[in-house]
Every structure is written in structure tokens, then in C-alpha cells.
Design a protein that fits this description.
Elements lengths: L1 H16 L4 H11 L7 E10 L3 E5 L6 E4 L14 E8 L7 E4 H19 L3 E9 L2 E6 L2 E6 L18 E10 L4 E5 L1 H18 L5 E10 L2 E5 L4 E5 L20 E10 L4 E5 L11 H4 L5 E9 L3 E7 L2 E6 L21 E10 L4 E5 L11 H4 L5 E9 L3 E7 L2 E6 L21 E10 L4 E5 L7 H8 L5 E10 L2 E5 L5 E5 L20 E10 L4 E5 H15 L1
Parallel strand pairs: 3-5, 13-15, 18-20, 23-25
Antiparallel strand pairs: 1-2, 1-4, 2-3, 4-5, 6-7, 6-9, 7-8, 9-10, 11-12, 11-14, 12-13, 14-15, 16-17, 16-19, 17-18, 19-20, 21-22, 21-24, 22-23, 24-25, 26-27, 26-29, 27-28, 29-30
Length: 549
């Protein structure tokens, strides 16, 4: 009886448990029956949050589990929150439903992403972290990959500094199956730069002054970034003065003011100038440096034909080699000048149109040849040092840069000088007489023999034609004999006036040193000529003897 009561009691309780309405039973069936489809977005309630996993109640026999990494670190998630996820499998290998929040997010915004990709419209995104090869960007709430080459116009040196910052991006690749999105910030920047470039070209005017940054430096100039377009600042337009390389004035990164001096819109070229921002130093140049005025400057360069002197920034004059010294024979400018040397010069000529100034170095001092006749008058006796000996004479230095020439014909009245070296030696001092001065040609003629009286003229002045004299043979020639007569003079006995008529040449009978009895038959002061006759002298002597006998 007791057992029967227990059984009845059990039946009663069982009946009470299942004593529910049909509507309530339908709700329970809907809740726990597998009506959800795989591949769809479902809602789940957070029931547990672990360090690595998050468990969701998705109203199925098994709960859904997804990785905590699918949520940002600062995402405000708590138990009881509702989360939309993508149901990949109702039951995975471990018995849990396989779900993904990222895939759900991707699906929800797919239409927006696809539209932005097709229309090439920019999208806003936040750079969340750095990864290998680039960075991850949150776009429409989903992750997209930003390659390193697409971050900026130039390689980005500090990518970590961009984390957390918002930018505009363009979706450049899209793969639905892999849920892969690739974005580019560089394309947005390039389009922006191109737009600014077009606008800047449209607004540019010659003579407008702009501010730019030195982008690159080459031997021929510098490229200046004007904020969208690059302009060329040629080396000749950097400074009015002389520069060898743009780096003497500019450095990459410098901010400079420039003037637009040329525009080629068809070729997208802009020519810039810096020197045009300051006055042209060649303006009114003839008033600043009138011809004949003295100027001070610095030697900036030299060539074979002269030296360039900077007399102010942007203004250079040329000292031609011929204008460097009144007296010295200069072979090259470096003989007397060197680069960076300070010099004083005289303005000789200015051509403003060609921007040329001719300068003179020697004109700073008086031309010594202007007063040369006062210093060395013709007929005066001077002393100098033999500087150079040639076949035709010897150059004597009278003072620094002033030479005179002793021609070989002016070395002796009577001696036949074959070469000046017979009687002169380089470096030795010599006395001589000034014979002639040519100021225009800058030449002085000197003579040694003129220091003594001409023995020929002396002889002529003390003798008459017909005089009987004695002479000593000093030279034998085919056409006659040269003899030494009184006062060291020289006379000539023609072949026809020799006493020996039956000879072919004088040397057959006569020899050097023989004394001859001679008669003066002709004398000429202008020609310095004394003609003698042995035949007439002997004939006269014979006649005298006959008379005496």
C-alpha cells in the first residue's frame, strides 16, 4: 500500500512537470530546435567572456564560440550583450557552433564596400596596427590591408606614428571569398596633388612670388616643390654672383622664396628665379663704375687669357693678360695673380648690354714708357745687366721690365762680330749708349761701340785723298784685302789695286800681318769707306825714286 502511494505521488509530480500549454510548448520547441541556417547572420547573447574565447548563446543545442581577437582591445563588451555573428557551422569539431563576428561585419558592410570599390570613391578609415609589409586599417568596421608602398607618396620612415590616425583611402582590391580588402592612401594623395597641380598651373603668373621647399639639387640647378608642382631653379638664376654648384647656396629641405620667370603649361614646366627678387647689380653700372675709376675686387677665376675679378656680388670684370703689366712679359695670369687675391684695378670699358667690364691692373700705376725719354735720353750712357743673348744681339735690363737691345752691328766699329757671345756674357753688367727710343713699340736701341769715337771718321777727318800710308793685312777676301791703318781704322784694297796682277786670289801671294804701302784713292764719311791702292802707292814711290836719282 505504501509503495502504491509512492508511485501515485511520482506520477502526480511527473504530470505536474509536463502540465504546460500548447503555446508554451511551441515556444520551447522554437527555442531549442535547429531552425537556424548555416551561412547566415545570427544574433547571440554573451554568456561568458574568457581571455581567449567568448561564448555566445545562439539559441541552439550548442553554444557558439568565437575568438576574443575578433574584438578590438578597447571594445566595451560585457555578459548579456547581443552580438551579431556569422554562423559557419551548427556544430564544429568540439561540439560548439562555429561563428565569426568579423565575417558578419564584412557581410553587413559588403554592399557599401563594393559600391566604394566600383565607384572608386574615397572611404574614411583608421589605422589600427602595423603588420608585416604594411598596416591594418579599419574601414566600415572591418579590417583592410594597407601595403607599405601605398601609405604615402614617398616611403614612410615611421609607420608606428600613424597608428590611431584617420585618413581617406581608396579600395584598390577586393576578394569576397577570402574576405580580403586592400586599400591605398597614396592614390588619394596623388589625385590631390594632381588636382592642386592643375589649380596651381591655372593660377600661376610670370613674376608672381611663391614660397617653396628645395626638393632636389643637381649640378645645373635645384628643383623646388611649390606645393603640388616642381619648378626648376637654374644655377644661373640663383644668384647675381658666380657660384660653382647650387649646394653653395641651397640645401635639400630649405624653404625659399622664388619668382616665376617662365611657364610652359603644355609641358607642365615652371622656371624659377631667386636673384630676380633683388635688384640687378648691372642696372646703372656705368654710373657706379665710370671708365677710368679705380675699383677693388677679388680674383674669382683665371683663364689663359686673363683673370675675372668680382667687384661686387654679381658683377665681374676681366683683366686681360695684356693689361696686367706695363713692362713684364706675362705668359699666363697665374704668374702674378691667384684666385681669392684682392686687387685694385682701373675700369677701362663697360658694355652694359653684354654685361662686360674690362679692367686694367697696370693702369693703377703710371706707364714708365711715358717718361722713358726723360729717364734715358738719347745719347746718354747707361749701365745694365745682360739678360738674354741671341744671334742678332743682346738684351740689356735697364730696370725691372725695361730692356734695351744692343744689336750685333753696334758692338764694334771695326771688328767683325759673328756672335755677341764673342764679347758678352749673360748676367754680366755692361755700359752702353742710348741710340734710339720708340715709345709706341716700347723699344730701346743701345750701342757699345758708340762709347768711343768712330776710328774711320777720325781717320777721314785727319787725311786726304792721295796720302801715302802704311797698312797691315787683317783679312783676305776674294775681291780684295782689308787692312788696319791709323787709329785702328780699316781700309779696303780692291783686287784691281793690288800690285800683283797675275794671281787668282789675294791669298795666293798675301798673308795676314803683312805690311803694305798704300795710297788713299777714295774716302766717304757717310758710307764709312776708305779705299786704298797698293799699285798706285808703289807707282808713286817708283816715280819719286826716279826723280831723286
Amino acid at each position: 500500500m505504501e509503495n502504491q502511494n509512492v508511485m501515485d505521488s511520482s506520477k502526480q509530480k511527473s504530470f505536474e512537470i509536463w502540465d504546460i500549454t500548447d503555446d508554451e510548448l511551441s515556444v520551447l520547441i522554437d527555442k531549442y530546435s535547429p531552425t537556424l541556417e548555416e551561412g547566415k547572420i545570427v544574433k547571440g547573447t554573451v554568456v561568458r567572456i574568457g581571455p581567449k574565447d567568448i561564448v555566445l548563446d545562439i539559441c541552439q543545442k550548442s553554444e557558439g564560440v568565437l575568438s576574443a581577437s575578433e574584438f578590438p582591445e578597447d571594445f566595451p563588451l560585457k555578459v548579456g550583450d547581443t552580438v551579431e555573428v556569422f554562423l559557419e557551422e551548427l556544430e564544429g569539431d568540439e561540439g560548439f557552433a562555429v561563428v565569426s563576428k568579423q565575417k558578419a561585419d564584412f557581410i553587413k558592410v559588403w554592399d557599401d564596400i563594393k559600391a566604394a570599390y566600383d565607384e572608386k570613391s574615397p572611404v574614411e578609415g583608421t589605422i589600427t596596427r602595423r603588420v608585416k609589409g604594411g598596416m591594418i586599417v579599419s574601414v566600415f568596421g572591418v579590417e583592410a590591408f594597407l601595403p607599405g608602398s601605398q601609405i604615402d607618396l614617398r616611403p614612410c620612415k615611421d609607420m608606428d606614428s600613424l597608428v590611431g590616425k584617420k585618413f581617406l583611402f581608396r579600395i584598390i582590391k577586393l576578394n569576397w571569398k577570402r574576405r580580403n580588402i586592400v586599400v591605398s592612401r597614396r592614390q588619394i594623395l596623388e589625385e590631390d596633388r594632381e588636382q592642386k597641380k592643375k589649380q596651381l598651373f591655372h593660377d600661376l603668373d610670370v613674376n608672381s612670388v611663391l614660397e617653396g621647399k628645395v626638393k632636389n639639387i643637381t649640378p645645373f640647378g635645384a628643383f623646388i616643390d611649390l606645393g603640388g608642382i616642381d619648378g626648376l631653379l637654374h644655377i644661373t638664376d640663383i644668384s647675381w654672383g658666380r657660384i660653382q654648384h647650387p649646394s653653395e647656396v641651397l640645401s635639400i629641405g630649405d624653404t625659399v622664396q622664388v619668382m616665376v620667370i617662365g611657364i610652359e603649361k603644355e609641358k607642365n614646366r615652371v622656371s624659377l628665379g631667386m636673384k630676380q627678387l633683388i635688384p640687378d647689380p648691372w642696372k646703372n653700372i656705368t654710373e657706379k663704375y665710370p671708365e677710368g675709376s679705380k675699383v677693388n675686387g677679388k680674383v674669382v677665376s683665371m683663364t689663359d687669357y686673363g683673370a675675372f675679378v668680382e667687384i661686387e656680388k654679381g658683377v665681374e670684370g676681366l683683366i686681360h693678360i695684356s693689361e696686367m703689366s706695363w713692362t713684364k712679359h706675362i705668359k699666363k695670369p697665374s704668374d702674378i695673380l691667384e684666385v681669392d687675391q684682392s686687387v685694385e684695378a682701373v675700369v677701362l670699358h663697360i658694355d652694359p648690354d653684354k654685361q662686360r667690364i674690362s679692367l686694367g691692373l697696370k693702369q693703377v700705376h703710371p706707364d714708365p714708357w711715358e717718361t722713358i725719354e726723360d729717364k734715358y735720353p738719347v745719347g746718354s750712357v747707361v749701365e745694365g745687366k745682360i739678360r738674354t743673348i741671341t744671334n742678332f744681339g743682346a738684351f740689356v735690363q735697364l730696370e725691372e721690365g725695361i730692356d734695351g737691345l744692343i744689336h750685333v752691328s753696334d758692338m764694334s766699329w771695326v771688328e767683325r762680330i759673328e756672335t755677341p757671345r764673342q764679347i758678352l756674357k749673360e748676367g754680366k753688367s755692361v755700359h752702353c749708349k742710348v741710340l734710339k727710343i720708340d715709345k709706341e713699340s716700347k723699344k730701346i736701341s743701345l750701342g757699345i761701340k758708340q762709347l768711343e769715337e768712330d776710328p774711320v771718321q777720325k781717320f777721314i777727318s785727319s787725311h786726304q785723298t792721295g796720302d801715302q800710308i802704311t797698312g797691315s793685312i787683317v783679312e783676305l777676301k776674294d775681291r780684295g784685302i782689308v787692312v788696319k791703318i791709323d787709329d785702328n781704322a780699316r781700309g779696303f784694297v780692291p783686287f784691281s789695286h793690288l800690285n800683283n796682277e797675275n794671281i787668282k786670289k789675294p791669298s795666293d801671294v798675301y798673308k795676314i800681318g803683312d805690311d803694305l804701302s798704300l795710297k788713299i784713292i777714295e774716302m766717304s764719311s757717310d758710307g764709312r769707306r776708305i779705299l786704298l791702292s797698293e799699285k798706285e802707292a808703289l807707282s808713286t814711290e817708283s816715280q819719286v825714286k826716279e826723280i831723286e836719282s
